[in-house]
Task: structure prediction
Amino acid sequence: MVNYIGVSDIQQLVREIGAADFLAQLADTIEDDYRRWDQFEKSARVASHSAQGVIELMPASDGALYGFKYVNGHPKNTAAGLLTVTAFGVLAEVSTGYPLLLSELTVTTALRTAAMSALAARHLARPDSRVMALIGNGAQSEFQALAFHRLTGVRALRLFDTDPRATAKLVQNLLALPGLADLQLQVCASTAEAVQGADIVTTVTADKRQAVVLTPEMIRPGMHLNAVGGDCPGKTELARDILLRPDLRIVVEYEPQTRLEGEIQQLPADHPVTAFADVVRHRAPGRERPDQVTLFDSVGFALEDFSALRLLHTLLQAQRNGVRQIDLVPTLDDPKDLFGGTLGRAAAGPTRLRRVA
Result:
C-alpha cells in the first residue's frame, strides 16, 4: 500500500498546521535541500509544448529518495472553467524503486512556489523591505501574499491585474484571513502605480508570450524583483533592458533550465548569473549593497517539488490516523509470479485445465 494525498487531504493537513506555518516549514525544507545541492542528481524538466500550453515532467533525486512531478501550464484554460496549472507527484525509495507517496501537487505547487519566492527574498531583498507590489492577481497571488507576510515581514501590498475581478478576488480572500489583519492592501490602476514605493516587486502573470510587464523606468535602486511568471521558452515578463542594468544581480535556481525558460532567455548564454544554491551555502553573496537591484529569475525547479514531497512524507509518517493509502503496487506471495498472483488468481474458475498429450 502506498500513502496517498488528495486535494481534500492537503486541505486538511494545511488547515491543521496553518497555511503560514506550513509555508514556513516548506521554505525551511527547500533551504535545507539547496544546502545539499551537490548530493542531488539534477536535470532540466522534460517539456512537451503545444500551441495551447505545456506538459512537463520534473525529476530529482538525492540518492536515497527519488521524486518527480507531472505539471501542465495552459493559460487559456480559465476561459473554459479549468485551472491553468494542475500537478501530481510521486516520492519513491531509491533502494527498492518502490513508491512511498502519491500526492496531488496542484495546491502544493502553489504553496512551494510562494515559499521559494519568499525564501529567495530573505536572501536577496533588503532586510527592511515592507512594501511589495504584486502584479498579476490570479491563482498564485494569495500564496505569494501569505508567504511574504510570514517569511519576510511584508506589511503592505500594492495590487494590480489587467482583470479587475482577479484583484477583487484577491482582496476578498486576504481580508477573510484573520492572520493578515496587519496587512495593508492598496488596489492600483496600473503596474506603474503599483511599483511606486515598493521594496519588492513580484510579477506572476500567466500569458504565454514575451510580455513587457516591467519597464526600465519602473525600477528603483534597492528593489528586489521576484519574476515568477516567465517559466517556459517564449514566456517572459521583464523588458530586456532591465536585465542589462549594470547594478542588477540575477539569481537563478538551476542555470541550464533558466537559460531556456527564465527571463535570461533574452540574454546571451554567457551573461553572468548567480546560483541560489551558492547564495544559500555562502559561496556567493546575495545582495551586495543596499542600493543594488536584485532579481530572482524564478522558473520552478524539481528540487523544490522534491522538498515538498519529502515534507509531506515526513508529516504523514508522524500521523497515526487519517492517512489514506492506495494499492498502487501488488503484494505477492511469490514476487516472481506476477500473473498468478494477480490476473491468474482473478481468472481462476471452478474447473481446472487438462493437459492434452
